[in-house]
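Listing S7. Sequence submitted for prediction.
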Amino acid sequence: QHRQAVFHQLGHASKIYSGLGERLAKVLAYVEASIDFVEEEGVEESALANVVAGLSGIKSDLEKILDDRHRGERLRDGVRVVIAGPPNVGKSSLLNALARRDAANVSSLEGTTRDAIEVAIDIAGVPVVCVDTAGLREGSEDEIELLGMAKTRRFIEEADLTIWVDAPEIEHYPQLGLDSDTLRVFNKVDLLEKPKTPPGYDLGMSVWSDADLEVLVDKLAVMVAERYHAGEPALITRHRHRTAIERCLQHVDAALGANDQPLELVAESIRLAVRDIGRLVCRVDVEDLLD
């Protein structure tokens, strides 16, 4: 968070956004010149020749900025790591072990966890929000448990990382098609005659083993670091930044796709793109365009 804050304080992000604003303004000026000097010989053709190439380059740069896995927001708000799986596999015990305190109730009875429990921790220098969720199973008729399982599925869909937990002698719930990066854990290996990691799992462990827990944390640290802690600090750190860039990209796409549209509509799309960049750092006025 400190590195990211210093990066923005020194104006590195502003320089990039200002550069995009200047490039958009230059393309807009070409389009405006084509409209204003339509009777001047050669002006329209010369101006329009620069529009498509300029917009294509800007589009590529905007897409690269957006393709950041939301690193900036996650460093501010925390990476969401969801602990999911069937009931009674040790999900709440795992949350308590990671948090190093009794954050969740633990019981041998199935369905103890009815609602999600969130705990903030630090992994690999990145803030992480671990979420213990209700166990997933089939055939339940308990209305409260069904609500908890529905909420679990929503948390899994929104997760940045998922720890899927299974255990011996537990009726395994069919593993969902997880969109997030997933660490598949087989817990309670201490109950097996020969403790080992079964096929299809990344780690066999017991939450009561400090050594196993350390291995789990190391694996999580690698996954978090690879995704959120590599390279230069992120340009986008807030939701409003991402919204402005996404809208800018939409207007650039509209301008590029307006092949048979009047130039006035192309100019309007680019003008809206300039406005969206202006929400971040630089405002382009009429005098800038005339220049």
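Caption to Listing S7: primary sequence and predicted structure tokens for the chain studied. The CA atoms of residues 164 and 184 lie 5 Å apart. The longest helix spans residues 12-36.
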